[in-house]
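Trying the structure run again after the queue cleared.
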Amino acid sequence: MKAVILAAGKGTRMGALTDELPKPMLPVEGKTILEHIISGIAAQGVREFCLITGWKAEVIEQHFGDGSPLGLSISYARQEVQDGTGKAPELAKRFVGDDPFLLTYGDILVRPETYATMVERFGQGEFSGLITVTPGEDVTKGAINFFDDQFCLRKIVEKPSAEQLDQLRADGWLKEGDPMWYNAGIYIFRPVVFEHTAKLQKSPRGEYELTDAIATMIDAGEPIAGAKTEGRWIDVRDPEVLKSLG
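Done. Tokens:
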């Protein structure tokens, strides 16, 4: 398995903190966010990484180089236009080849055990993809996911409005007492995902959404496993979150 990390955005909500640094290079507990992510994935035996860079790309590329000091092989692809998460993974298409790959945003912190759980779950069936979820977050800021009794994905809705949530309740998707499964932003895909990202249209927000590609995978009958994140899950979205991490 290979790994692709989306690290192209500036992180505008970080204000002046990202004037000279891309957000994934901000320090947390003595290491950059990216170092936490890479070391956690590498602990599962993954050795080939592709980092999708953009804002202040040279900072990331100079810091990690080719990865050889870490015993890894790290390559890079630059996202020149920040037009959403749906098209960014396509920059790693040649790197991926025919292999499954773990895909994560460059600002999501989890325990290394989460990556291990993902790899184990993905190996339990003939899955085309895997999506991680966590309960207790505001789904209107991310995506809400619905699963069958085998915890395979049946439906995904990006940033649902209050009206959409009411409709999901009315349609029986959202039941009283059920957890709202928030998209945790870490995935495993087989290369079939690129057939779906290639067909993406821009969302009402004017961006290509990865969740739209996942939705068309579901429609096409591609099996997508769910995996719950246990323990630490942190979206380093703003200065307040960063400050809380010390």
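The chain has one domain: 2-244. Worth checking whether this holds up in the mutant runs.
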